[in-house]
Amino acid sequence: MLAIEALQPGLVKQFAAIIAADRLGQAYVFNGLSGTGKGALAQWIALRLFCQNVQAGHPCGECAECQRILSHNHPDVVVLATDARSLKVDDVRELKSELSKSGVEGQTRVFVIEQAEKMTPGAANSLLKFYEEPVSGAVIILTTTAKNQLLPTILSRAQIINFPTPPRAQIKAQLEADGVSARLAAVVAQLTADVADAQSLTADESFQERITRVLKLAEQLANRDATAFVAVQANLLPVAKALPEQTQLLALLALVYEDALNRHFQVAAPAAFAAEPVVAQLAAQSAAALSASLSAILQAQVQLRQNVTFQSDTEQLVLKLLAIA
Ligand SMILES: [Zn+2]
C-alpha cells in the first residue's frame, strides 16, 4: 500500500472514484498543513492515471510507468518545487512551455506546483493562461499551506480540496508504511499530531535515546528505586540540554503514566508504550496513585514553562513520584 492511502484514505477514495468515473477536473488547489500528504496525493493521482496495472482502483506502484513517476522521471508528470523563498516567472516558464507543447489531443499530463503560495504575482499571472484556456487531458495541481495567499483569479478557477489533519491512528499507519517500527510509530503518534514533525522525530536518533532513558527512569520509579533521583542529573540531563528536549522528556514520562492508568482501567485507548513491561508494572499501582503521579508530572510541565530549571524541577518530581503510594 502507498503511504498516502494510509494517511488520507478519504481523499484517496474520493479521487479513485472521480478518476474511475472519468471526471477528473483540470485545476485543483490542495490546501492543508505541512505533512498532510498534499504532494503525495498529487503523485498518487499521476500514478493512478498512468499505471499499467491498476487493481481495484489503486495504482500498483511497481510497473514501469509507476516507477518512472516515483523516481521523478516521467515526461508527462512535471513537478515544480523549490527550496527558495519564492517561485518566480522563470521557474514557471519551463512548466508553461511543457503545457503549451501541442501534444496529442487529450493526452494525459499532470503538472504540480508545490508550495504555490511562494509564487510571485508575476509567476501566478503567467499561469493564468492555462486556467483560461485549459489543455484537454492536462491537470494542474497547486499545493499550498495558505490558500488565501493565492491569487483570487487562480482560486476561483480551481477546485479547492482542503486536507484534514489526519487522526493519530493514520499518522501511525503512515509512519509504519514509511518503514518506521511499530514500537516507535506508536510513541511518535501520541506525541505529535503534525505529520511533518512526526517524520522528523522518527529520523532523530537522540529522540530514540530519550525514549530509552525515560523508560529506564519509569522502571526505577516503578521499583521505588531511590537512585531515580540521581538519574535525573546522570541520565536525563545529558540528553535534554534545551527546553524543547526537556519538555519532550516530561511529555514522554506523562505518556508512560497515561498508558499505565488506561491499562489499570482496561481502557482500550491508543497507547504509546503498550508493549513495555514497565507499563504493566505501573498499572498494578492504585488508580489514586497513578492519578496523583500524572498530576505531579503535569505540574512539573507547568513549572518548566515558568522557568524552573529542568534539573531541580525533575528532581522534585521524582521525589514526589517515589513518595506516592
Ligand atoms: Zn503501476
From TrEMBL:
TM stretches of this protein: none
UniProt cross-references to Gene3D superfamilies, sorted A to Z: P-loop containing nucleotide triphosphate hydrolases
Gene Ontology molecular function terms on file: DNA-directed DNA polymerase activity
Keyword terms: Nucleotidyltransferase, Transferase
Domain of life, per lineage: Bacteria
Keyword presence, Kinase: no
Listed InterPro entries: DNA_pol_HolB, DNA_Rep/Repair_Clamp_Loader, P-loop_NTPase
EC number: 2.7.7.7
Signal peptide, first to last residue: none
Entry keyword annotation includes Ribonucleoprotein: no
EC class of the enzyme, as a word: transferase
Protein name, per record: DNA polymerase III subunit delta
Protein species of origin: Lacticaseibacillus baoqingensis
Native organism taxonomy: Bacteria, Bacillati, Bacillota, Bacilli, Lactobacillales
Name of the gene encoding the protein in the UniProt record: holB
